[in-house]
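Propose amino acids for all 175 sites.
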């Protein structure tokens, strides 16, 4: 009984935090199974009018010839796992106190080296536009947007082709 008295409450709290963190990682990995990619396949690219970075990770896809560029998936998330090229904690609603968010897009079809754009919009006002270059080797891209203070409510990110056509839209909110 005396040995239990010597255990500090902060140790117990730390242990609980570690266990919960491990369980969240396991749950996320079970919900998002993807093949792991070696770090040597990861590349960076992109420019942002908001001075935030845009990056891309490699992917190999087998598509039927002649199929034009298409958006396979797009999500907003809190961070990107750069070694895996995957979004971390994708959501539809975020805390109004976040400093920045990411928009992750994956493309399929006939991918030639071309530009796509992520246009971040709040209350019908463009907050940031990020230019990204995709190719057959870099079909997964993401942008990062600095979130202004006091910007609660509905947001969306338009994913646009080089010609300006809308390939998709990701809606989310800050609460």
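Proposal:
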């Amino acid at each position: 009984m005396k040995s239990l008295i010597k255990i500090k409450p902060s140790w117990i709290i730390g242990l609980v935090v570690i266990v919960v963190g491990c369980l969240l990682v396991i749950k996320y990995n079970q919900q998002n199974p993807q093949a792991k990619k070696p770090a040597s396949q990861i590349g960076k690219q992109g420019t942002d009018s908001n001075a935030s970075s845009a990056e891309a990770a490699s992917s190999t896809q087998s598509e039927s010839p002649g199929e034009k560029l298409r958006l396979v998936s797009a999500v907003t998330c809190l961070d990107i796992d750069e070694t895996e090229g995957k979004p971390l904690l994708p959501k539809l609603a975020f805390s109004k106190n976040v400093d920045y968010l990411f928009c992750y897009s994956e493309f399929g079809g006939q991918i030639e080296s071309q530009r796509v754009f992520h246009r971040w919009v709040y209350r019908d006002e463009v907050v940031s536009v990020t230019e990204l270059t995709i190719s057959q080797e870099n079909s997964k891209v993401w942008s990062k947007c600095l979130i202004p203070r006091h910007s609660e409510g509905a947001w969306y990110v338009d994913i646009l082709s080089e010609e300006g056509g809308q390939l998709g839209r990701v809606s989310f909110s800050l609460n």
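Residues 34-64 have pLDDT under 50 and may be disordered. The chain has one domain: 36-174.
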